[in-house]
Write a structure and sequence with these properties.
Elements: E1 21-25, E2 28-33, H1 38-42, H2 50-54, H3 59-86, H4 102-112, H5 118-135, H6 137-155, H7 158-161, H8 176-216, H9 224-232, H10 237-266, H11 273-297, H12 301-313, H13 315-319, H14 330-333, H15 338-348, H16 352-361, H17 369-392
Antiparallel strand pairs: 1-2
Helix pairs in contact: 5-10, 6-8, 6-10, 8-10, 8-11, 8-12, 8-15, 8-16, 10-11, 10-17, 11-12, 11-15, 11-17, 15-17
Length: 398
């Protein structure tokens, strides 16, 4: 009937039903010809391998190659079209006209088209991610449940940490037995309160690490195929990654500050609360960043989730907060355990008797707060670097 039907799709199924196939790579024409010539042009055995083949070189090279070979393929298209007209299967409209410079016009128009800038891509991708998040009722309810329940779990241990610690009276005239009894009472209070304070801090750290894993484990791997196809359409990996970072940063800040503030209502941090809150934000950000890197490097969401869960599971036993690690193992594992650095930094921020009580019961050596701060920043940077590597390189499921 003289009509042209356009089907814009990422699917490579049933291509034989089309009269012609137009392949775009980052907004540039890489192929436009008959379906049966598609695999021959890209030197692949089947159409499923076209996308991985495209990823092997830049879009500009594909465009240059197509400009060199296009006359042959356009001639084939024209012959097929003329055969359909001669057989009566294709009727031309009365006002149809032929444009001898059709190829030149197409090339000129292509040169006029510019891909959206980095900022436009970033805002579009971030807006899309926010809309997807709020439209997914299950995800929103899960985040709210975690946000409410995890701090409540920590608060359950607050009564023991709120107990007062007895101090030495240094009273003269007391008997030796009374002094021993007083020393035992003081030591018992230090043990109870110190272990409770250490447990609350580590519980906060581990739960925030779990939140970080939940935040990012599936963030990129869960939409791997969409990302790979969108990169062919001109989406910048930088804009894509930045949209993920900004979205996840919002979750990290809300989760960490709410955890710190809610627990503070029931158990007042005996020291610099600001430092404690900063370390909670950093450990959540570090775990989110590392899991985002894992997600970008894995091909499937299931593998990324499993590896992220294992990573969180190792945080508590390898942190040394519960049991001190053997001296020959501790130096090897400590740099990689973000839970230790957040726990140690928060404990070092405690003041006076509470810090003394905790250090007295802990066999694990504490690190200065500035060292803990910089190590957690390094964790974040390593995770972001891994995220960039995984996002920028092509990963196709064959």
């Amino acid at each position: 009937e003289g009509r042209i039907v356009l089907s814009v799709t990422h699917s490579l199924a049933h291509l034989e039903l089309y009269d012609s196939i137009l392949v775009l790579h980052e907004g540039r024409v890489a192929y436009h010809g008959t379906p049966e010539q598609l695999t021959h042009y890209f030197s692949v055995n089947n159409t499923e391998l076209v996308y991985p083949q495209l990823a092997k070189q830049a879009s500009e090279k594909w465009r240059s190659s197509w400009l060199k070979h296009s006359p042959t393929y356009y001639a084939k298209l024209e012959r097929n079209r003329q055969n359909l007209v001669n057989q009566g299967q294709l009727e031309l409209p009365a006002d149809e006209f032929k444009n001898p410079d059709r190829e030149d016009v197409a090339i000129a128009r292509e040169d006029e088209i510019r891909a959206p800038g980095l900022v436009n891509q970033f805002t579009t991708l971030l807006g899309r991610r926010m809309r997807i998040f709020f439209r997914d009722r299950g995800q929103v309810l899960l985040q709210l449940a975690i946000l409410i329940c995890f701090p409540i779990l920590v608060v359950l241990f607050s009564p023991r940490a709120n107990e007062n610690m007895r101090k030495f009276t240094n009273a003269t005239g007391s008997s030796l037995q009374e002094r021993y009894q007083e020393q035992a009472n003081v030591q018992e209070d230090r043990l109870k309160v110190g272990s409770a304070v250490s447990g609350i801090i580590m519980f906060q750290v581990v739960l925030l690490s779990l939140m970080g894993s939940n935040n990012a484990a599936r963030e990129i791997a869960g939409e791997r195929q969409i990302l790979e196809k969108e990169k062919f359409g001109g989406v910048s990996p930088i804009a894509y990654l930045m949209s993920k970072i900004v979205f996840l940063s919002g979750l990290v800040l809300v989760q960490s500050l709410w955890m710190a503030g809610f627990v503070e209502l029931f158990w007042s941090f005996k020291g610099s609360f600001v430092d404690h809150a900063i370390f909670l934000v950093l450990v959540n950000a570090a775990m989110t960043s590392i899991c985002l890197g894992i997600s970008s490097l894995m091909r499937t969401a299931e593998k990324a989730s499993l590896l992220s869960v294992y990573l969180v599971g190792f945080q508590l036993p390898l942190s040394g907060a519960v049991l001190a690690l053997p001296e020959n193992i501790e130096p090897l594992t400590r740099p990689f355990i973000s839970a230790y650095w957040a726990w140690s930094g928060s404990v070092a921020s405690l003041s006076g008797d509470y810090k003394s009580a905790l250090t007295a019961i802990s066999e694990t050596e504490l690190s200065p707060t500035n060292i803990c701060f910089f190590i957690l920043l390094i964790h974040i940077m390593v995770g972001l670097a891994a995220s960039w590597v995984g996002t920028s390189r092509p990963q196709w499921e064959h």
